[in-house]
Write a structure and sequence with these properties.
The chain is mainly alpha-helical. Helices cover 60% and strands 2% of the residues. 44% of the residues are buried.
């Protein structure tokens, strides 16, 4: 009987995801492309699903150009120069370190190497061998090991622990090469989660980050994972951490959006309450995130992360016009939560985008009424 109830719940959840509750101006749902009633995202200038970039949450043309050069030539020097010219305390350096490490990890997965074959990501190995004192290369190598542990091993297994211990040592080496750089310590936050640092160990690590970059949004998002119920904390501890960050956020900081990420990390797996996404806790977190993106610098690279999560909550809350406003800013890139949790991020994003368009038009909206 329990299995039957679970199956029924899963079916209903699928219905909730693909069929939004009826409005006075008509039903909102998804139909097949080409159907006479289909709302077409292309009418709003949105990118086609196959054109969506799953590598990054938002544009960074310098990074894309260098990534293309490095992967085409297998010469690491462009990456080294780009990181050397990127501000250490800023969000963009952390994102670029993640991107280079992710590219090397993906290459290795695609070309693991064999007899007479060079493995993928060889440029990162050469980088570390030829420039062992380069802080950027050391940080990328540490992040590469972290990503390899999560992608190729099961948390808690011997293989996972071995790779994570190697990553921990690499973080220490990277930190010695750049004492004022918070990035090696931010990388270690993932190690702390994987290896299960004690509270005291974690707090000591966190203080090192606060000393170097107290308002670093990427660091706070990484630290939030440790405090989540599914790892080493609880719902209340995660909420408290996020709310404290939002409360001390300086004007123009995206830290005001932290509670929305805490809510997302603790969503019920099966939620059949139609008003949940219009509840007080969600509404308050959404308003904080909206305030954050409206107050932040236009060039803040973490804006895209917040806007992507806002699309998820605004669509679920049937706030169509507000969801469309976010889509006009972020469309084209989908390398962010919640889409990256899917095996097909572009398709997942496209579903929510189509629902936003359908809901917007069902309530009288059109391309002419959407501000850009």
């Amino acid at each position: 009987m329990e299995i039957l109830w679970v199956l029924m719940a899963l079916v209903m959840l699928g219905f909730v995801l693909l069929q939004v509750s009826r409005r006075r101006r008509g039903a909102v749902g998804l139909v097949e492309p080409g159907h006479p009633d289909a709302a077409d995202p292309a009418n709003y200038g949105f990118a086609r699903e196959e054109e969506l970039d799953i590598r990054m949450p938002g544009p960074d043309q310098d990074l894309l150009d260098v990534l293309d050069l490095v992967q085409r030539t297998q010469d690491y020097r462009g990456a080294m120069q780009l990181l050397a010219g990127t501000e250490a305390e800023g969000e963009r350096r952390w994102q670029r370190v993640q991107a280079f490490a992710g590219a090397a990890s993906l290459e290795l997965r695609q070309r693991p190497g064999g007899v007479g074959e060079t493995p993928g990501g060889q440029w990162l190995r050469v980088w570390r061998a030829e420039a062992p004192k380069d802080a950027g290369g050391a940080a990328v190598h540490a992040e590469f090991l972290v990503q390899q542990a999560w992608r190729t091993s099961t948390p808690g297994s011997d293989d996972f622990r071995i790779i994570m211990e190697e990553a921990r040592a690499a973080c220490g080496e990277a930190a010695l090469l750049a004492p004022g750089d918070p990035v090696p310590y931010i990388v270690e936050l993932s190690v702390a989660r994987g290896l299960g640092y004690s509270r005291e160990e974690f707090e000591q690590l966190w203080l090192k980050i606060l000393d170097r970059a107290p308002n670093h949004m990427g660091a706070h998002l990484a630290a939030l994972q440790y405090w989540c119920e599914k790892w080493h904390g609880s719902r209340q501890q995660a909420y408290s951490f996020a709310e404290a960050a939002a409360a001390r956020a300086p004007r123009g900081s995206l830290l005001a959006a932290m509670p929305l990420f805490a809510v997302f990390e603790h969503l019920p797996e099966v939620n059949l309450v139609s008003g949940f996404y219009q509840s007080e806790v969600v509404t308050k977190a959404v308003h904080g995130a909206l305030h954050a993106v409206h107050s932040a610098r236009p060039d803040d690279p973490m804006q895209a992360h917040v806007r992507h999560l806002l699309v998820f909550f605004l669509v679920r809350g049937e706030r169509w016009a507000e969801a469309m406003n976010q889509l006009t800013v972020i469309d084209g890139h989908v390398g962010a939560l919640p889409w990256t949790l899917s095996t097909d991020p572009a398709a997942e994003f496209a579903v929510y985008r189509a629902l936003a368009v359908a809901g917007y038009e069902a309530n009288g909206g059109s391309p002419a009424t959407l501000p850009h």
